[in-house]
Design brief:
- Two copies of one chain form a homodimer.
- In chain A, about 30% of the residues lie in helices and about 25% in strands.
- With about 250 residues, the first copy, chain A, is α/β, with parallel strands linked by helices.
- The first copy, chain A, has a seven-stranded parallel β-sheet, with helices on both faces. In chain A, strands 1-4-3-5-2 form a five-stranded mixed β-sheet.
- In chain A, β7, α6 and β8 form a beta-alpha-beta unit.
- In chain A, α5 runs parallel beside α9.
- At the A-B interface, α5 and α9 of A face α5 and α9 of B.
Chain lengths: ~250, ~250
Amino acid sequence: MNREVNVKEIKSSNNEYIKELAKLKIKKNRDLEKKFLVEGYHLIEMAEDYIETILISDIKDLNIIKNKKYIIVTKEIINKLSQTQTPQGIIGVVRKKEEFIDDGNILVLDNVQDPSNVGTLIRSALSFNIQNIILSNDCVDIYNDKVIRGSQGSIFKINHIYCDLCEKINELKKKNYKIYGTSLKKAICIDEVKFENHFALILGNEGQGVSDDILQQTDCNLYIPISSQIDSLNVAVAGSILMYELTKQTK
Amino acid sequence: MNREVNVKEIKSSNNEYIKELAKLKIKKNRDLEKKFLVEGYHLIEMAEDYIETILISDIKDLNIIKNKKYIIVTKEIINKLSQTQTPQGIIGVVRKKEEFIDDGNILVLDNVQDPSNVGTLIRSALSFNIQNIILSNDCVDIYNDKVIRGSQGSIFKINHIYCDLCEKINELKKKNYKIYGTSLKKAICIDEVKFENHFALILGNEGQGVSDDILQQTDCNLYIPISSQIDSLNVAVAGSILMYELTKQTK
């Protein structure tokens, strides 16, 4: 037996609740309310466990996920809340999930700024069974809509924490994690790395790479051999190749 | 001895030449004029061989590349032509380079739509010494500003052609190229592939993958093993990992 579906309707985009939700487009308000918005069927399915309320403009979407609170809204309201060019007519209000369990391999992001890069890296991390992500406090917000879209919803399947990297890396070293930096200085080729059971892989800013104080804490630094015709790979590509290589031997 | 620098000045954004250049933001006009614009120091250096004219708003940039035609313009003109949020004050007018030489490994893109993905893939291709790119006619325009920025200027170091993929793949097969598709159906794991001296690797659309008629022409299809928790990798990541693996053995 299904529980009775709890449905109400909002027709004005000046409704107070809608105005509150629109504020979640700004990081400051997401931090304050500990909530964020996701758009579209795929992301709402991925976020299922953390969804509070689902706003729909088409009655056919009612009960698309069972046992959730639904609000029927106008297309105008969807457009007001949407951050995509062609909204799908369904928006979820999602509780932030903040937890971190360091019991497996870890991806560490040091001041990575581009939301598509962070989204793509989280998608690749989950693909290679790395479910723990540590972000420096100056990384882009993981609840930015472009990060969520770039991650294809994989942010709902990983654990993450924002923190001071130096402190956190010290903790991990005490727990016998192998700490891999990425750098061209004093680095070894990814082909020559022997597998370690627990590792943390650190990727850096798009322009500057991993910061010097963090590189001083690593056990070793890795590089991917590339043509002399080009300076570097995109950080999401480089990180994904390294995660692929480092986890390949455990399959 | 330097040749005398050829400099003129334009102050009005309504100048006919500036209005013509502004039209190059649209693909149709880039196709017609066989020209496009690049912005910023790094990209202008990368495009050096193909640059016709350099527009600068700061006199200090005069002669930044030797033996080119310079026009000093206002910041307003730079803003009119720029497609970035923070223009660097230097814009190059570049001749399109259309050539294709199938004498090495080849990357083939079938209806790839996202300009950042195409830019990133070209950057990775050059990184792994793949300098020939074939694009289906329905791929995004390689001279789109987001492709150029995503490629970090590597589009100036590769050969490319837009064409009908079925015909072109038939030609490559006659030249003994090994044709690799990417698919989850009837595919073999990338770990199990034996190196071939000349290959063409085909990547498909972000949503639909490689089209069925193209997959029928491949010698074999490759996949990258990933977690069951996720459907797929980003196409730029998947393509980069495959290029990395396929070219690794030739180093």
